[in-house]
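QA checklist item 7 of 12: single-chain prediction sanity check.
[x] sequence parsed
[x] length recorded as 453
[x] structure emitted
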Amino acid sequence: MILIIDDDSAVRSSLSFMLKRAGYVAQTVPGPREAMDVVRAEAPSLILMDMNFTLSTTGEEGLTLLKQVKVFRPDVPVILMTAWGSIQLAVQGMQAGAFDFITKPWNNAALLQRIETALDLAAVPKDAPEEQSETLNRSHIIGKSQGLMEVLNTVARIARTNASVLITGESGTGKELIAEAIHINSQRVKQPFVKVNLGGISQSLFESEMFGHKKGAFTDATTDRIGRFELANKGTIFLDEIGDLDPSCQVKLLRVLQDQTFEVLGDSRPRKTDIRVVSATNADLRKMVSERTFREDLFYRINLITVKLPSLRERREDIPLLARHFADRQAEVNGLPRTEFSADALNFLSRLPYPGNIRELKNLVERTILVSGKPTLDASDFDAQYLRHDEPAKASDSSSLAGMTLDEIERQTILQALDRHKGNLSQVAMTLGISRAALYRRLEKFNITVNEK
């Protein structure tokens, strides 16, 4: 049974009719007192709750009711309903334990999808056995450490739902691979998986890139363009580096995720999209929310489920497996004989700090194989390449760093890498263990001008 709490009889009737057509049993009540009578008597499967009752618009009644419901029925998911201009009320409700929120007027398809997601997740036991991950299609995810297995168990539990997922972790930890695993293990596996690097999209191109445009919509629009949301329809959209999104673009993204509708530039007709959203970032979004550089309502919209990837330093037992995988791939791609590793080579690799995580390990293994040309690699082979690779860092000893801020150290390291590689940004990004997009952002942040090679 789904309980609807709203003081507007038209809203109660509309929601009840929609739910019954979708095959759900619905019960409606006009206010907090009647709602608590129902909640005390039985546990609804889900509650749709308005935030305002009588003539009040502060949302206090709704927040109080939510807290009371959570005392009696802590495991029942609650979806809040509020006006677009009062989303901050919904954010307070999410902080108080609500599952999700919708804005009035709502989109029936989007609301039904959120209800289905809430019911699916409520039905998944939180202590599901680890064996669930054994049936997971892991694709190219290599490793068996406890930290990685915990991530894969979470993926196995939530993949078949439509829940939005936020993947966090340092640069180079494999967030895109986890996003792909969520898609290929979902019910959308036969539909598109569209990747978008938000860190590489400027504010001026955001709408055209994400929503598309019609020919003539602006000066350079010589042809129609299909946006990423339309390309991802029925499938999954992966929003990488979402922490780098400009505040004005955050508002536009929130509206699409909220209503699952968008408008193509040059065409005022709203278009519907049915997508699952998976986001990723190496930024601390909670800190950004507190600093008001990332919208709190968008934060709650994208992180229904949060998956935190461990750094390579936290899963060192996986390093030999990853090194073997990268060596085999290198041999396959370049038609080379299989490269072996000595025991001391694997011990050496397992002790390195890896600020660039898996991406750095991959680069080191591939570079050493190509440079050495030996059938069996030992620690000295990797040591030689690692020392060459790490010269800029080695050059700045502790005394030269004294009195420098973290930003100053980062800027100096980038300048050293640029000088060493003569401005070749691809090599600089590889040396630093970051993506080119992340390097571009740092160059802009530190006002470093480069004549790209």
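[x] summary fact logged: Confidence is low (pLDDT under 50) at residues 391-399.
[ ] second reviewer sign-off
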